[in-house]
Amino acid sequence: MTTRAELPARKPDWLKKRLPESGSLLRMESLLREKGLHTVCESALCPNLGECFERGTATFLIMGDVCTRGCGFCGVAEGLPGILDAEEPGHVADAVALLGLRHVVITSVTRDDLPDGGAGHYVATIRAVRARAPLATVEVLVPDFLGRMEHLDLVLHVAPEVFNHNVETVPRLYPAVRPQAVYERSLAVLSHAAAHGAGLVKTGWMVGLGEREEEMRDLFEDVAAAGVDVVTIGQYLRPSKNHLPVMEYVLPEVFDRYREWGEALGLQVHAAPFVRSSFQAGESLVQALGRSAEGHQSA
Ligand code: SF4
After folding, report:
1. Protein residue with its CA nearest to atom 6 in ligand 1
2. The domain that contains 220 carries what CATH number?
3. Cα-flanking dihedrals φ and ψ of residue 37, to 5°?
4. Residue 298 confidence (pLDDT) above 70
5. pLDDT for the residue 297
6. Domain containing 236: what range?
7. Which residue is closest in CA terms to ligand 1's atom 8?
8. First to last CA, the chain
9. How would you class 106 by CB atoms within 10 Å of its CB: exposed for 0-12, middle for 13-18, buried for 19 or more?
């Protein structure tokens, strides 16, 4: 275990990634710019961007790239967001059709400034995607809508195949990691979705922020009890010196142990240094559907 005091300046080998082929990067970026679209891949400086753009997939970041919150780990700018772009849902749908996406992930900044927290814009975007790409499956990675379940229900009513909301870390670290969020509120969002007919319920968190192993066990218990089906766990990487420091480079074998813990609770777990909420999300959905089909056969 490599703890804070001993953190080497250079990242360990398992946190090194090959550079992507630039041509596919440029093609994806020019399409996104042409449509005036943002991706969380770019805004959050995701280490998998190259791989995903090369494969022609991306996670659309709707409602602008300025967030009303300032989480200590997140590369997205905090501030006063602009007005919503009413054309954005159609532009996302255009990009989905042009890219031929079979699984579409839609996320957003948190818009605590909007009366419905942006739920209506999610609904409009999902509907536009369904109209342009009726065979595509849709995953939403949503904020907590300040715990307003009537706003959450607006999104649930258009039945995204995957409902995702990240808990991000253990409750003890919330004041530093997610100061404007509340752990119990995020659990309530997940259990509400599970209880109100969401397709798959998914959540995720980072490690390497100073969490303790017993806290990880409690976190697994809490999300399993909330009705979560799929969990993603990845290594926290610092977007800039203005963000929280990495407290630990978690060893790959520790991720394996975390996966075993989750699977023992019946969860589908994707745990590895470069795992992110929507990384290989389409494959994760196929795996989950396979599991539930097996579950029905053996029942
Ligand atoms: S609410 Fe989401 S987008 Fe906003 S700062 Fe936090 S993690 Fe980033």
Report:
1. 71
2. 3.20.20.70
3. -105, 150
4. no
5. 60
6. 4-298
7. 74
8. 41
9. buried
Q: In whole angstroms, give the CA distance from residue 42 to residue 49.
A: 7
CA of residue 169 to ligand 1 center, whole Å? 13
Domain total of the chain: 1
Which residue's CA is the nearest one to ligand 1's atom 2? 109
H or E element in which residue 207 lies: strand 200-207
Q: Among residues 115, 193, 194, 207, which one has the least CA distance to residue 155?
A: 193
What pLDDT, on the 0 to 100 scale, is given for residue 1?
43
Residue in 67, 140, 166, 178 to alter for ligand 1 test, most ligand atoms within 8 A of Cβ: 67
Residue type, 106: I
Whole-number Å distance, alpha carbon 264 to ligand 1 midpoint, is 30
Q: How far is the CA of 66 from the centre of ligand 1 (A)?
A: 9
Strands 137-141 and 162-164: parallel
Helix then strand then coil, in percent of the chain rounded to 5, is 45, 15, 40
Q: Which residues line ligand 1 (CB under 6 A)?
A: 67, 69-71, 74, 76, 109-110, 143
Count of residues in the chain: 299
- Span 74-113, pLDDT tens digits: 999 999 999 999 999 999 999 999 888 999 999 999 999 9
* Beta carbons within 8 Å of 273's beta carbon, 6+ residues apart: 14, 15, 234, 235, 250, 252, 255
Q: What's the mean pLDDT when you consider all of the chain?
A: 91
Q: Which ligand 1 atom minimizes the distance to the CA of 68?
A: 4
Q: Which residues contact 158 (CB under 8 A, 6 or more apart)?
A: 123, 126, 127, 130
Give the position, in ligand 1's atom list, of the atom nearest the Cα of 75.
Answer: 8
